[in-house]
Amino acid sequence: MTRTGRGPVGHSGAVSAATRRRLELAAGDLASACLAAMDRQPWFGRLTADQRAAVLLVTQRGVANFVAWLDEPAETIRLTAEAFRIAPRDLARRLSLRRTVELVRIATDVFEERLPPLAADDDEHRVLVEGVLRFGRGVAFAAATAYAAAAEARGTWDARLEALVVDAVVRGPLPDVDHTGNAAGDDDALVSRAAALGWDPASPVRVVVGPAPDPRSSAEHLGELRRLGVRTHRPVLVAVQGGRLVVVQAEPGIDRDPLDGAAVLDAFGPGPVVIGPLATGLTGAHASAREALAGLRAAPGRPDAPYPVAADDLLPERALGGDPAAHRRLVDSVVAPLAAAGGELLHTLAVYVEGGGALEACARTLYVHPNTVRYRLRRIGEITGYSPTHPRDSFVLRTALVASRLQGWSKPLKDGG
């Protein structure tokens, strides 16, 4: 049914020009009433004056857009999204989506209370009531769309920043030259980028490496890995670098197994996963990454290794692969303590492991009783943590002896003999 001076009710022109004029004139009072209702929220009072003014501006624009929308119902998304585009970026960062939707609900309640009484008759009253509800719904959807787009852009930026941090950890400090001509490290840049991701640079960390996941499920697994870090208060930084996945995991004051839950291991593809040693902070995480990556390269040499395996449990394989850090670690943890203990321990170890682990033969070579050899072997295990009678430990000890000779430790061995 068509009414004088207006189009069909519920369509364009359903509200008279006089009523639309009253709505336009009421925009300021409506915005103030909305702001007063919003002010009853405890958190709203903590906004700065500029932010509150921005909310008022958006609300006023919302009233104006509502009047325009009555003539163009099909333009809901364009008109409501326009209100969010004029909002300062600082306001969008300060207000969460939940709080924004709460403000939309408050404004809709005020609109529903104050706009329909401006109608000229019952038909206009019904149109305004329905219009407020439909427009409020459109604003809520526009808010969700705006926040989703911002979250997607922020997520993309965070992912790039995260990849830069992980790359800096793996690569290690590369000296450059400052304005004075002196070498300057890039630790400050690493700390700054990590802080932008909410990371505590002073927190102890481990680096875990392994094969990259299947690209088809990579995003899902890495997302679950990040969520696991948040739930367990042990945040992670993750990055896929070619065919490998690198995980930097915070260990806030707790020296424990970093792989809590199958979700972490599920993030890796098939193959060995290697855990680096604990580092004191993010700037020292390169040492953990270096050991973990060396272990990953050496892991094929020990097919029966545990899953996951610590980088320190692959020292012999790493040493055979030419890792100088593994050479030093073996000498420092095996040969040096035995040499410092004095006596015949180091020489006894060499004769025993290089003689095939035959106790009687070792005793004859050393011209001592077999019980003496047993005692010395037991002492070697107590000092180094490796038992010469255990096959794997014997391999570690023998590799340490070879590494010591390559590093000039042959004199103590001769003296012991």
From TrEMBL:
Domain PucR C-terminal helix-turn-helix per the UniProt entry, residue ranges: 345-402
Transmembrane segment boundaries: none
Domain of life per record: Bacteria
Pfam family, one: HTH_30
Ranges where the CdaR GGDEF-like domain occurs: 186-298
Entries under InterPro entries matching the protein: CdaR-like_regulators (IPR051448), CdaR_GGDEF (IPR041522), PucR_C-HTH_dom (IPR025736), PucR_C-HTH_sf (IPR042070)
Protein family per UniProt: Belongs to the CdaR family.
Record's protein name: Helix-turn-helix domain-containing protein
Source organism of this protein record: Pseudonocardia charpentierae
